[in-house]
Write a structure and sequence with these properties.
Pfam families: FGGY_C, FGGY_N. Belongs to the FGGY kinase family. With 497 residues, this protein is α+β, with helices and mostly antiparallel strands. It has two domains: 233 residues, 2-Layer Sandwich (Nucleotidyltransferase, domain 5); 245 residues, Nucleotidyltransferase, domain 5. The protein is 34% helix and 23% strand. It is built from 15 helices and 24 strands. A seven-stranded mixed sheet has the order 18-19-17-16-22-23-24, with helices on both faces. Helix 2 packs across helix 4.
């Protein structure tokens, strides 16, 4: 029996799944590591901890010695600096590290058409700014670098014995990828002060080009696998999550509802210009993974439960609103971005708002308005991405809410499907390894058609949402000036009661 391992190096742990070439998962394991948080937006991890966690996870399965191929995915937009001895010269600056604000502003002013050439809005988390920060604050590090990596998967595959690579999806997140020239963006590298000859090779020129090499004898002894088995670099975590859940062909899309929320979908071709929708290159360059994210999803719902049903738990609130889900008569429109917004506008000054409250509006209406506001924000993302699915898988902790699933079905006028969606990144990494090595192509996405799922179908309220969506979309520009004015007011400037 052929066994393929998929590793996903996440924000807090490595996840591992061992699959047969037919797609059956026969073992799972996880191993965690620490994250260092510091003043000024510092968020770091040690790359060696990723490696140690991968070794522990493989050992925990008890079958590492039987694995025939290894696929790796993981967090993107990191900065990993490796010295001549193969060790990291400093902890990795993670994708969420925000220390490089000043460097970002300098790069924005110095790189011609930066956002158009990279196909994305650039903010202070980009890797180019992180490189510039190192040049200015730790000037001895980059001159000593033997190799740079921009994603955890590329580092781990290299340490296992493969060549130094970066998949094009991860490269899309760095601010360093020229989507027209299909190579690293020379202007951004020069402006950052980074050594271009230390950059990893791009992989993803075509589907299946993910093979990084084979596991070395030294690495095999640590990982517990056989020396010489192939190791493949899958797309970065956002791409692998999509591929592992629904696939990677145009039209494949899914919804995620956690603390934040997003709609991720595969589209043919790139958008005409950068927008609040993230656009990541997929292998082959012709397709894009587009992600429309809302800042507050589960966090907004939790706030609404505390505020409007302070003495009730999740189950009690669901029971209280069950008969009201389809009643829009007294439900106000809601902007749910309690801490800024990312889609359909990207603006940190946005806050939550209710519009259209009447005397008939009660606690249930307010609570359901928040769920509806999140769903509408995601629907606006779908319109911007030109994704019009009639079947949309939904994952994340918040999809446990029957009320929210029904609202999503009505707002999207689509069947919402839920089911077993455990470790999609691992499944995708195994799929990439199987494809790259010719070991078999029967590992299917977890929620692809044919999977065992629960379905939530649109109800009568969908026609009412069709009329409300346009009015909801108009609230964003209508209230932008108000939010910015409020953000500029100090407490002393507010009128006395």
């Amino acid at each position: 029996m052929t066994l393929i391992a998929g590793l996903d190096i996440g924000t807090s742990s490595v996840k591992l799944a061992v699959l047969t070439s037919e797609g059956a998962v026969i073992a799972r394991a996880t191993a965690s590591y620490d994250t260092v948080h510091g003043a000024g937006g510092i968020i770091e991890q040690r790359p060696e901890d990723w490696w140690d966690a991968a070794c522990r996870a493989l050992a925990d399965t008890g079958m590492a010695h039987r694995i025939d191929a290894l696929g790796v995915t993981g967090q993107m937009q990191d900065l990993i600096v490796i010295g001549a001895d193969g060790r990291s010269l400093r902890p990795a600056l993670l994708y969420s590290d925000t220390r490089a604000g000043a460097q970002h502003e300098r790069l924005r002013a110095s790189i011609p058409e930066w956002e158009r050439r990279t196909g994305n809005h650039q903010d202070l988390t980009n890797v180019a700014a992180k490189l510039a920060w190192l040049v200015e604050h730790e000037p001895r590090v980059l001159p000593e670098a033997a190799q740079l990596f921009f994603g955890a998967a590329g580092y781990l595959a290299w340490r296992a014995g493969g060549r130094a690579t970066c998949d094009v999806t991860t490269a899309s997140t760095t601010g360093l990828l020229d989507i027209d020239a299909r190579t690293w963006l020379g202007d951004a590298i020069e402006a950052s002060g980074a050594p271009a000859d230390r950059f990893p090779a791009l992989v993803g020129a075509e589907p299946g080009d993910a093979l990084a090499g084979t596991v070395s004898p030294a690495a095999a002894a640590q990982l517990g696998v056989r020396a010489g088995i192939p190791v493949a670099v899958a797309t970065g975590d956002a791409g692998s999550a999509t591929d592992g859940l629904v696939g990677s062909t145009p039209g494949d899309a899914y919804l995620y509802l956690g603390t934040t929320g997003w709609l991720a979908g595969v589209t043919a071709g790139a958008p005409a210009e950068p927008s609040p929708i993230h656009s990541l290159v997929l292998p082959g360059w012709h397709h894009r993974l587009r992600i429309g994210a809302v800042q507050s999803a589960g966090s907004a719902a939790a706030w609404a439960r505390r505020t409007f049903f302070p003495d009730s738990d999740f189950a009690a609130v669901e029971a209280a609103v069950a008969d009201r889900v389809g009643d829009l008569s007294a439900r106000p429109l809601c902007l749910p971005g309690l801490a800024g917004e990312r889609t359909p506008v990207r603006d940190g000054h946005f806050r939550g708002a209710f519009v259209g409250v009447t005397e008939a509006t009660d606690a249930a209406d307010h609570y359901l308005a928040v769920l509806t506001g999140v769903a509408m924000g995601l629907r606006h993302a779908a319109e911007a991405m030109q994704i019009h699915q009639t079947r949309i898988p939904a994952v994340g902790g918040a999809v446990a809410s029957p009320a929210w699933r029904q609202i999503l079905a009505d707002v999207f006028d689509a069947t919402i499907v839920t089911g077993d969606a455990e470790d999609p990144g691992c499944v995708s990494a195994a799929r990439a390894a199987a494809e790259a090595t010719g070991l078999g192509g029967r590992i299917r996405p977890l929620l692809a058609p044919g999977a065992v799922v629960e379905e939530t179908h649109p109800g009568p309220a969908r026609s009412g949402y069709g009329r409300l969506l346009a009015a909801h979309r108009e609230l964003y520009p209508a209230l932008a000036g108000t939010f910015h004015a409020l953000a500029g007011m100090s407490p002393q400037a507010l009128p006395d009661e």
